[in-house]
Amino acid sequence: MSDEGQPTAAWPVALSGVTESVVTTLGPNRLWNAAPLGIHAGEPVTARTWGNTRTRRNFHRQGEGYVQFVDDPVVFADAALSIVEFEEPILESACAWTRVTVEQVDAGSEGDTDWEEWELRPLESGIERETVPTIDRGFGAVIEATVAASRLGVADYDDAALRDRLAYFESVVDRAGGPREREALERVREHSSW
Protein backbone atom coordinates (compact mmCIF):
# COMPACT_ATOMS: atom_id res chain seq x y z
CA MET A 1 0.00 0.00 0.00
CA SER A 2 1.09 3.55 -0.66
CA ASP A 3 1.10 6.27 1.99
CA GLU A 4 -2.43 7.25 0.94
CA GLY A 5 -3.70 3.69 1.48
CA GLN A 6 -4.08 2.91 -2.22
CA PRO A 7 -3.03 -0.48 -3.57
CA THR A 8 0.32 -0.49 -5.36
CA ALA A 9 0.39 -3.94 -6.98
CA ALA A 10 0.58 -4.20 -10.76
CA TRP A 11 -1.54 -6.17 -13.20
CA PRO A 12 0.30 -9.37 -14.25
CA VAL A 13 -0.57 -8.82 -17.93
CA ALA A 14 -0.67 -5.85 -20.30
CA LEU A 15 -4.26 -4.67 -20.71
CA SER A 16 -5.74 -2.97 -23.74
CA GLY A 17 -9.30 -2.39 -24.88
CA VAL A 18 -11.70 -4.76 -23.13
CA THR A 19 -10.06 -7.92 -21.82
CA GLU A 20 -12.33 -10.85 -21.04
CA SER A 21 -11.62 -12.45 -17.70
CA VAL A 22 -13.26 -14.65 -15.11
CA VAL A 23 -13.69 -13.07 -11.69
CA THR A 24 -14.22 -14.96 -8.46
CA THR A 25 -16.06 -13.26 -5.61
CA LEU A 26 -16.78 -14.57 -2.14
CA GLY A 27 -20.46 -15.23 -1.51
CA PRO A 28 -22.41 -15.39 1.74
CA ASN A 29 -22.17 -19.20 1.54
CA ARG A 30 -18.34 -18.83 1.86
CA LEU A 31 -17.83 -20.18 -1.66
CA TRP A 32 -16.12 -18.34 -4.51
CA ASN A 33 -18.50 -17.64 -7.40
CA ALA A 34 -16.90 -17.56 -10.87
CA ALA A 35 -18.35 -15.27 -13.54
CA PRO A 36 -17.12 -13.45 -16.65
CA LEU A 37 -15.96 -9.86 -16.29
CA GLY A 38 -14.89 -7.61 -19.14
CA ILE A 39 -12.21 -5.30 -17.79
CA HIS A 40 -11.59 -1.97 -19.49
CA ALA A 41 -7.98 -0.82 -19.75
CA GLY A 42 -7.22 2.59 -18.35
CA GLU A 43 -6.09 4.28 -15.20
CA PRO A 44 -7.80 3.03 -13.23
CA VAL A 45 -9.04 -0.20 -14.79
CA THR A 46 -12.86 -0.41 -14.76
CA ALA A 47 -15.56 -3.03 -15.26
CA ARG A 48 -19.35 -3.12 -15.39
CA THR A 49 -21.74 -5.54 -13.79
CA TRP A 50 -25.11 -5.97 -15.49
CA GLY A 51 -28.24 -6.82 -13.50
CA ASN A 52 -28.54 -8.15 -9.98
CA THR A 53 -25.78 -10.73 -10.33
CA ARG A 54 -23.83 -12.60 -7.68
CA THR A 55 -20.74 -10.66 -8.76
CA ARG A 56 -22.45 -7.31 -8.16
CA ARG A 57 -23.82 -8.40 -4.79
CA ASN A 58 -20.49 -9.87 -3.72
CA PHE A 59 -18.63 -6.74 -4.83
CA HIS A 60 -20.93 -4.70 -2.58
CA ARG A 61 -20.62 -7.20 0.28
CA GLN A 62 -16.86 -7.88 0.12
CA GLY A 63 -15.34 -4.96 -1.81
CA GLU A 64 -12.93 -7.21 -3.65
CA GLY A 65 -12.45 -10.21 -5.92
CA TYR A 66 -9.91 -12.13 -7.98
CA VAL A 67 -9.69 -11.24 -11.68
CA GLN A 68 -8.33 -14.24 -13.57
CA PHE A 69 -6.98 -14.68 -17.04
CA VAL A 70 -7.96 -18.13 -18.29
CA ASP A 71 -7.25 -19.90 -21.56
CA ASP A 72 -9.88 -22.65 -21.32
CA PRO A 73 -13.08 -21.92 -23.26
CA VAL A 74 -15.06 -24.52 -21.26
CA VAL A 75 -14.25 -22.74 -17.99
CA PHE A 76 -15.29 -19.43 -19.56
CA ALA A 77 -18.58 -20.81 -20.94
CA ASP A 78 -19.51 -22.44 -17.64
CA ALA A 79 -18.73 -19.25 -15.69
CA ALA A 80 -20.68 -17.13 -18.17
CA LEU A 81 -23.89 -19.13 -18.30
CA SER A 82 -24.21 -21.17 -15.11
CA ILE A 83 -23.57 -20.94 -11.39
CA VAL A 84 -20.05 -22.15 -10.70
CA GLU A 85 -18.64 -22.04 -7.17
CA PHE A 86 -15.34 -23.12 -5.66
CA GLU A 87 -13.79 -23.45 -2.22
CA GLU A 88 -10.68 -21.51 -3.28
CA PRO A 89 -10.55 -18.16 -5.12
CA ILE A 90 -7.91 -18.97 -7.75
CA LEU A 91 -9.06 -21.27 -10.55
CA GLU A 92 -6.92 -24.19 -11.72
CA SER A 93 -7.27 -22.82 -15.26
CA ALA A 94 -5.90 -19.36 -14.36
CA CYS A 95 -2.74 -18.44 -16.22
CA ALA A 96 -2.52 -15.30 -14.08
CA TRP A 97 -4.67 -13.54 -11.50
CA THR A 98 -5.02 -10.26 -9.68
CA ARG A 99 -6.72 -9.71 -6.35
CA VAL A 100 -8.49 -6.37 -6.65
CA THR A 101 -10.40 -3.95 -4.49
CA VAL A 102 -13.53 -2.64 -6.15
CA GLU A 103 -15.33 0.65 -5.75
CA GLN A 104 -18.61 1.51 -7.43
CA VAL A 105 -18.17 4.79 -9.32
CA ASP A 106 -21.25 4.98 -11.57
CA ALA A 107 -24.62 3.35 -12.18
CA GLY A 108 -27.38 3.52 -14.75
CA SER A 109 -29.67 1.41 -16.84
CA GLU A 110 -29.89 0.28 -20.41
CA GLY A 111 -33.42 -0.75 -21.30
CA ASP A 112 -34.69 -2.75 -18.35
CA THR A 113 -31.22 -3.76 -17.16
CA ASP A 114 -29.41 -1.87 -14.40
CA TRP A 115 -25.63 -1.65 -14.54
CA GLU A 116 -22.93 -0.51 -12.16
CA GLU A 117 -19.43 0.62 -13.04
CA TRP A 118 -16.54 -0.32 -10.79
CA GLU A 119 -12.94 0.82 -10.43
CA LEU A 120 -10.60 -2.13 -9.92
CA ARG A 121 -7.33 -1.59 -8.08
CA PRO A 122 -4.77 -4.40 -7.77
CA LEU A 123 -3.77 -5.56 -4.30
CA GLU A 124 -1.63 -8.54 -5.33
CA SER A 125 -1.14 -10.68 -8.40
CA GLY A 126 0.43 -13.89 -9.53
CA ILE A 127 1.42 -15.72 -12.67
CA GLU A 128 0.57 -19.41 -12.50
CA ARG A 129 2.05 -20.40 -15.85
CA GLU A 130 3.51 -18.72 -18.87
CA THR A 131 2.34 -19.85 -22.27
CA VAL A 132 3.10 -18.89 -25.81
CA PRO A 133 0.05 -16.93 -26.92
CA THR A 134 -2.00 -18.28 -29.77
CA ILE A 135 -5.01 -16.73 -31.44
CA ASP A 136 -7.90 -19.16 -31.73
CA ARG A 137 -10.92 -17.86 -33.63
CA GLY A 138 -12.97 -20.65 -32.08
CA PHE A 139 -12.32 -19.34 -28.56
CA GLY A 140 -13.33 -15.84 -29.66
CA ALA A 141 -16.54 -17.26 -31.13
CA VAL A 142 -17.29 -19.06 -27.85
CA ILE A 143 -16.93 -15.79 -25.92
CA GLU A 144 -19.27 -14.01 -28.33
CA ALA A 145 -21.71 -16.94 -28.17
CA THR A 146 -21.89 -16.62 -24.37
CA VAL A 147 -22.83 -12.96 -24.77
CA ALA A 148 -25.53 -13.71 -27.34
CA ALA A 149 -26.91 -16.68 -25.38
CA SER A 150 -27.10 -14.64 -22.17
CA ARG A 151 -29.36 -12.14 -23.95
CA LEU A 152 -31.89 -14.69 -25.24
CA GLY A 153 -35.29 -13.92 -23.78
CA VAL A 154 -34.28 -10.41 -22.68
CA ALA A 155 -36.92 -7.93 -23.82
CA ASP A 156 -34.47 -5.38 -25.27
CA TYR A 157 -32.93 -7.93 -27.68
CA ASP A 158 -34.25 -9.63 -30.81
CA ASP A 159 -34.16 -13.41 -30.23
CA ALA A 160 -34.16 -14.16 -33.96
CA ALA A 161 -31.10 -11.95 -34.51
CA LEU A 162 -29.36 -13.52 -31.50
CA ARG A 163 -30.06 -17.03 -32.82
CA ASP A 164 -28.60 -15.99 -36.21
CA ARG A 165 -25.46 -14.81 -34.39
CA LEU A 166 -25.28 -18.08 -32.47
CA ALA A 167 -25.51 -20.05 -35.72
CA TYR A 168 -22.65 -17.97 -37.14
CA PHE A 169 -20.51 -18.47 -34.02
CA GLU A 170 -21.23 -22.20 -34.23
CA SER A 171 -19.95 -22.22 -37.83
CA VAL A 172 -16.75 -20.44 -36.72
CA VAL A 173 -16.18 -23.00 -33.96
CA ASP A 174 -16.80 -25.83 -36.44
CA ARG A 175 -14.26 -24.37 -38.89
CA ALA A 176 -11.66 -22.84 -36.59
CA GLY A 177 -12.03 -24.33 -33.12
CA GLY A 178 -10.56 -27.35 -31.44
CA PRO A 179 -12.08 -29.96 -29.12
CA ARG A 180 -12.26 -27.61 -26.08
CA GLU A 181 -14.03 -24.93 -28.13
CA ARG A 182 -16.54 -27.50 -29.40
CA GLU A 183 -17.15 -28.71 -25.84
CA ALA A 184 -17.53 -25.10 -24.69
CA LEU A 185 -20.12 -24.42 -27.38
CA GLU A 186 -22.05 -27.48 -26.18
CA ARG A 187 -21.96 -25.95 -22.68
CA VAL A 188 -23.41 -22.74 -24.13
CA ARG A 189 -26.31 -24.82 -25.47
CA GLU A 190 -26.75 -26.69 -22.17
CA HIS A 191 -26.72 -23.54 -20.04
CA SER A 192 -29.02 -21.41 -22.22
CA SER A 193 -32.29 -21.51 -24.15
CA TRP A 194 -30.41 -21.75 -27.47
UniProtKB/TrEMBL annotation:
Domain DUF447, chain residue ranges per copy: 19-128, 137-190
Pfam families linked: DUF447_C, DUF447_N
Name of protein: DUF447 family protein
